[in-house]
Amino acid sequence: MSTAAAAVKPDDGVTGGNPPANVETPPEAANHVNDANKAKAEELKSQANEHFKNKDNDKAIQLYTEAIELDGSNAILYANRSFAYLRQEAFGYALNDAVQAIKCNPNYLKGYYRRAGAHMALGKYKLALADLELVAKRCPNDKDAQLKYTECNKIVKKMAFERAIAVDKQEKSLLEMCRDLESATIESDYEGPKLEEGKVTLEFMKHLMEWYKNEKKLHKNFAYRILCDVEALFKKQPSLVDITVPDECKFTVCGDIHGQFYDLLNIFEINGLPSETNPYLFNGDFVDRGSFSVECIFTLFGFKLLYPNHFFLSRGNHESVNMNQMYGFTGEVVAKYSQTMSEMFTIVYNWLPLCHCINQKVLVMHGGLFSTSGVSLDDLRAIDRNRQPPEQGLMCELLWSDPQPQNGLAPSKRGVGVHFGPDVTKEFLEHNKLDYIIRSHEVKDDGYEVAHDGKCITVFSAPNYCDTMGNLGAFINMKGNDLTPQYKTYAAVPHPKVKPMAYASSLSFLA
């Protein structure tokens, strides 16, 4: 069996390897599945594999599920569905399927490979390492398996070393890091945008966007200064930022951008450049997956510095170390600038506000609502956000949760956060005297979705997500005296021939 193949396509049915030590093979459940069901399950698996290859993950998952209902003892079906879930960032579902694949057949190494991918995506590197070590030992000639094991082992050792020295290590502030770096000489032939007396201006922003459009790079001196200045600005803001939109004034809310810079430019083309009379809120996940994330984030940070009271940014689950290492942003920053700059971004992201409240009536967050009732806006204001996202609690759920159509709460498909129903939304809104919530975090065919009796709106602004999904992008307009959302949708625009995930880690299992 080739685990390299496991990284790029679903299984066609080849298995191999020996069961790990201390794992008992379960009773042979396959004896209870009749031949007709097995044959139909194989047919469905073949159809699902084709949809998977064509990036139609929803259809693939549907067909794998139908096959599993016919033959629930087939480890390959669970492992293939696990891979499709990984593509959808449904890490919790992916982990459950990988575990089930191993239970069905402890000999099946792709089950361990898939479980490693899910653990890696959830930041559980030690657990991933154990599975990757098993696969690497059983497949000594598989280059992909050896590479992933080696890279994961490096991460685990690095994390252990950093913990060991953390007590004695005095971290430099971002300002100190900036002072160490900004003295670099600006080359005489540099014709790109320059800060005016160290400040962002409208002319700088226009030049920057045109410069980026032509695939050129902002000089590192100015990049460092923007990071330093925007961190100082974010540090002054609370975890929940209140926004006042005057009567008859337009306000725009955008969802995930995910490094799709040319689609970001298209938003500004359609809806106008940000200004004091054309304010925006971008609702997290500015980076990762798309391979123009550096261009996106410096454009957004530049407008934040230019219009600090009329341009707003919320943190998403992808503004975090683990996501950035896996899905491309860290690799892109290192390729275009340096490892030091990637560390600077981590410091800045820790200070991004977590949510915004518009005219005391509309709450906007990246993910969603909470596993506990009675959460107040003051509870959100009190969150100590200067950290990496935790695995539970209010901050985690603001970044990771998703709505569900049925009432109540359920474990998240992502393995982090919760699924919340219409009754949860209704109770939260009534408790806090709000009209509705806006969130992002999920790709939608039309770029937006209205759920929970109109009280929970999803907006997603990255059209044809990852160049494969075929979805529209959308943004929301509203006016201060009439907060009724108006939706504008748009298709993707052409971009240079750089594929999504071009800078993704070799550990992403999806690149």
TrEMBL record:
SUPFAM superfamilies: Metallo-dependent phosphatases (SSF56300), TPR-like (SSF48452). PROSITE patterns: TPR. One of its GO terms (molecular function) is protein serine/threonine phosphatase activity. It holds the Pfam family PPP5. The active site is at residue 318. Keywords: Hydrolase, Manganese, Metal-binding, Repeat, TPR repeat. Its EC number is 3.1.3.16. The keyword Transmembrane does not apply. Its cofactor is Mn(2+). The keyword Hydrolase applies. Residues 218-494 form the Serine/threonine specific protein phosphatases domain. Belongs to the PPP phosphatase family. PP-5 (PP-T) subfamily. This is protein-serine/threonine phosphatase. It comes from Aedes aegypti (Yellowfever mosquito).
